[in-house]
Design goal:
Blueprint: H1 3-35, H2 40-61, H3 64-69, H4 71-84, E1 91-94, E2 97-103, E3 106-108, H5 110-128, H6 132-148, H7 152-168, H8 173-193, H9 195-205, H10 214-228, H11 253-283, E4 287-288, H12 291-315, H13 333-352, E5 354-355
Antiparallel strand pairs: 1-2, 2-3, 4-5
Helix pairs in contact: 1-2, 1-11, 2-13, 4-5, 5-7, 5-12, 5-13, 6-7, 7-8, 7-12, 8-9, 10-11, 11-12, 12-13
C-alpha cells in the first residue's frame, strides 16, 4: 500500500472514531430516556463501525471489473430493495416515512446502498456512450421511488451527484444548464406540493414563524452553534443534546460537535474532511485511470462532498433541514457502512490502476 493510501486509511479511522465518540456524546440523554442506560446507541454504532471496517477491507480487495461487469444487475437489485420498503412486514415505517427494511440484526436504508449503485451504474453507462435520454431514464425511476418514501434529502443527493457525473463524462454545458434548471424547478414543485416540506421551507425563509414547530428546531441548532463560541462548552457539556436539537446524534450531530468543541474544534474536524478529498486525489495522481474508473472514482468523491456540504449547510442554516447524514459521523449503520464501502472502492481503484508512463 502506497503512502497516500496508508494516510487515507488512518484518516478514515480517525474520522470514524471521532464520529463514534460524538455519537455517544449526543445520544446519552435519548439512550437513557428510551433504554435506561447511556450506551445503547453507542453500542449499536460501535457494532456497525466494526462491520464497516470489514466491508472496507473487502471492497479494497475486489477488482473494479467486478463492479463494472455487474453494474446493471446491481442497479436492478437496488431498485428492488427500494421497492421493498413499501412491502408490509418487510418495510419499516417511521414518522410517516417508508425508508427502511427490517433485518434480523437491525434495519437497512436501501437508498444509502443505491447512492453507490447509481454512481457505479452511471460510470459504466457513461463510459460507453454519453446518451442524455438513457441518463435521464435511469435517474427518473429511482427518483420517483425515493420521493414516494418520501426522502427529499436523498433525492437531492442522487440528482446532484448524477449531474456532476454527466459533466465529468463530457456533457455539454448547455445540457447541464438545462438539467440544473429543470432539477431546481422540479425540486421546488415537490416542496410546494408537500405541506410538510413547504412548512420546512417557510421555516427556513422566516424562522420567526411556527416557533413551536420547525422554527423551534432551527433555533435550538442555532443556539448550539452560538453556545460553542470559539473553544466550546467542553466535552460532555452540551446543553442542546437534552432533547432540544432534532436528531442530535444523527443528522444534526455537527451542531452538538460545534457546541462542545467550538469554532476551533469544528474547523479542525472540517479540515479532516478536506484532507479526505486531498488524499483521495493524491492516491491516483500518478495513475492512468480508464474512463469507467475515472467516473466511478470521482463520482464517489462527488457524492461524499455533496452530502458533506448539504449536511453542514443545513446545520448552519444555509439550507432547510432535510435529513442528510454526515459521512463517518452520523448515527446510522447504513450510511456508515456505505461510506466505508465507497472508501474501500477508492482504495481498490488506486491500488489496481496502472501507473502513468
Amino acid at each position: 500500500m502506497q503512502t497516500p493510501s496508508k494516510f487515507f486509511l488512518i484518516l478514515i479511522t480517525l474520522l470514524s472514531l471521532t464520529g463514534l465518540f460524538f455519537v455517544f456524546e449526543a445520544s446519552t440523554v435519548e439512550s437513557f430516556k428510551l433504554f435506561g442506560h447511556q450506551y445503547y446507541f453507542f453500542k449499536q454504532q460501535a457494532i456497525w463501525l466494526i462491520l464497516s471496517f470489514a466491508v472496507l477491507f473487502l471492497a479494497s480487495k475486489l477488482k473494479i471489473n467486478f463492479f463494472k461487469k455487474f453494474a446493471l444487475h446491481f442497479y436492478v437489485l437496488a431498485i428492488f430493495l427500494l421497492i421493498l420498503t413499501f412491502i408490509p412486514g418487510i418495510g419499516l415505517k417511521l414518522n410517516g416515512a417508508s425508508r427502511w427494511i427490517s433485518l434480523p440484526f437491525g434495519t437497512l436504508q436501501p437508498v444509502e446502498v443505491f447512492k453507490f449503485v447509481l454512481i457505479n451504474f452511471y460510470a459504466y453507462l457513461l463510459s460507453k456512450k454519453l446518451d442524455l435520454s438513457s441518463f435521464l431514464f435511469f435517474l427518473f425511476v429511482p427518483i420517483v421511488i425515493v420521493l414516494l418514501q418520501p426522502d427529499f434529502g436523498s433525492m437531492m443527493i442522487l440528482v446532484a451527484t448524477s449531474i456532476v457525473m454527466y459533466f465529468l463524462a463530457g456533457g455539454k454545458i448547455k445540457w447541464l444548464s438545462i438539467l440544473l434548471g429543470v432539477g431546481f424547478f422540479l425540486a421546488l414543485a415537490v416542496v410546494l406540493l408537500s405541506p410538510y416540506r413547504r412548512e420546512r421551507l417557510t421555516t427556513f425563509l422566516n424562522p420567526s414563524e411556527n416557533v413551536q414547530g420547525d422554527s423551534y428546531h432551527v433555533r435550538q441548532i442555532t443556539l448550539a452553534l452560538g453556545g460553542g463560541s470559539w473553544f466550546g462548552r467542553g466535552i460532555g457539556n452540551s446543553q442542546q443534546k437534552y432533547s432540544y436539537v432534532p436528531e442530535a446524534s444523527s443528522d444534526s450531530i455537527f451542531a452538538i460537535v460545534a457546541e462542545e468543541v467550538g469554532f476551533i474544534g469544528s474547523f479542525l474536524i472540517i479540515s479532516l474532511f478536506a484532507l479526505y478529498f486531498i488524499l483521495a486525489n493524491l492516491m491516483v495522481k500518478d495513475k492512468a485511470l480508464n474512463k469507467y474508473e475515472y467516473l466511478l472514482y470521482y463520482g464517489i468523491l462527488a457524492w461524499m462532498a455533496i452530502q458533506l456540504i448539504f449536511n453542514l449547510s443545513a446545520v448552519v442554516v444555509l439550507l432547510p433541514l432535510s435529513g442528510m447524514p454526515l459521512p463517518f459521523f452520523s448515527q446510522g449503520g447504513s450510511s456508515l457502512l456505505m461510506s466505508f464501502f465507497a472508501s474501500g472502492v477508492l482504495l481498490s481503484i488506486a491500488s489496481h490502476a496502472k501507473i502513468k508512463k
